[in-house]
Amino acid sequence: MPLITVHDLHVYLGESHVLQGVSFEVPEGGVTALLGRNGVGKTTTLRAMMGLVPRRGTVTLAGEETTRLATHQIVRRGIGYVPEDRDVFAGLTVDENLRLSERNGSPRYELVYELFPELETRGGQRAGTLSGGQQQMVAIARALLNDNPVLLVDEPTKGLAPLLVTEVAAALERAAELATVLLVEQNLAVVERVAQQVVVLDSGRVVHAGPASELLRDRAKIQSLLGVSGGGH
Amino acid sequence: MLLTITGLGLGAMYFLIASGLSLIYGLMGVLNFAHGAFLTVGAYATWWTSTHVGGGPGTKLLVGALAGVAVGAILAALVELVLIRPLYRRPVEQVLVTVGLALALNALVEAIWGFDARSFPVPSWLIDTTTVFGANIPNDRFLEIGVAAAVLVGLTVFLRYTRYGLIIRAGVENRAMVTALGIDVRRAFTLVFALGGMAAALAGVLSGVYYGVVDPGRGTSLLIFAFIVVVIGGFGSIGGTAVAAVVVGLIQQYANYYASSGLGDLAVVLLLAIVLLLRPEGLSPKVAH
Fold first, then answer.
1. pTM of the prediction?
2. CA distances in angstroms from A72 to A6, A38, A54, A138, A177, listed in the order given
3. A4-90+149-226 classified as CATH 3.40.50.300
4. Which of A81, A86, A87 should one mutate to test binding to chain B, selecting the residue with the greatest count of B CBs within 10 A?
5. Between chains, do B176 and A103 touch, taking CB under 8 Å as contact?
6. What's the average pLDDT block by block, 10 residues per block, for chain B (289 residues)?
């Protein structure tokens, strides 16, 4: 039985019908990558699953339908969310950003500081003064701080230097040992490294779903589905 | 010296009204035109209670003020729960509701207690003066400044060192992301409204002491200047609001005295225009601290 089931999800943003009946399943454990060209609805899918945009259809998490819940209630079912633009609180310190994310009595600071030691030394620094890579570490750390069985991670390597991409990919691998990860990612090298399953969107619909290795082996299919030549970029 | 301290006293009242307005807009995006009505209702609750309790003027004022502040907090929390909460993300309807509520509450006060000003219970020691550098300063000015300073310190400590303060500061920056961390931000909304109502009611008490009377139009007249203070200080910033309140209070007093009586209001509007032209985001941008 899949951990997450998305069924017939529709989202309208203004006049635009962004998601047109998206349906897919995410198995428990590992990383499922949500792929597609720019503007096909990947970020909107995650935002709809989080209840951050008005949507129609159903999202089921571990057998419980979450579509009727408010965002904070969905999160409390055990979802950690790393948004596309990081959305760290610029006026708060790194420590405050992390403290705000605590939902239970045993936040996993050891894990977070093991993955991103910089965050411990920069605890008193305002998040708005951090580099893009450091802000991404804060965003991922917030999601990992609680014992979430599911992580929704939206383009964590976007705009990062290659060295930081490697660091973030390593953090995702570690996260996948602890939780089920649904990852929106454009960097196919990262997908190849961390993902076991892929779901491909095009024009607001799912056009392919299956094992990651199968898609990544087929250059013609990558070209037709994603418009890139494959092998990472 | 008298002018400066009186200007600071006026600024203290503006700060008390504007701090709640600023946090409410900063966190929730709600322009609360009913905020002045919280002040009026708080002032009348204080006056009414003081006429129904025994003791000297000091006791009457203290008991009345406690009741007024409690009524202000409860009224504001109820307004948020019953009227504002169903209208999140509907700013036009929110404006209509808060304007309508302000008119309705003022009409209610007038219907119950009439249009005439009511004499406020002010102990004689507050009317007496203290000589500072040769100027005789009415003692109530020190009370107003002291209470506003205490509220400023209290709000700063609350925002900086408590869990709800952290939620409010984060919510002012990015409300959606706060909910995406699993936090029910609506509780913070109610709390901010209640705090704003308390501060506005406290301004009502102090305005009663300052003017010696309370009347139904008090909240509306002070609300206009409070909005100006919030715009100058920057929505969502308590520090910016405090600085702007002091500047507005002082400019108003100096202009009224050195230029011409009544010119103070014009000077404040001029200041607003200059700030909007040079620094539209206000003195301190949208970060609650």
1. 0.85
2. 19, 28, 15, 20, 25
3. yes
4. A87
5. no
6. 88 92 84 93 95 89 96 96 88 93 94 92 88 88 93 93 93 92 92 94 93 91 91 87 93 88 87 89 63
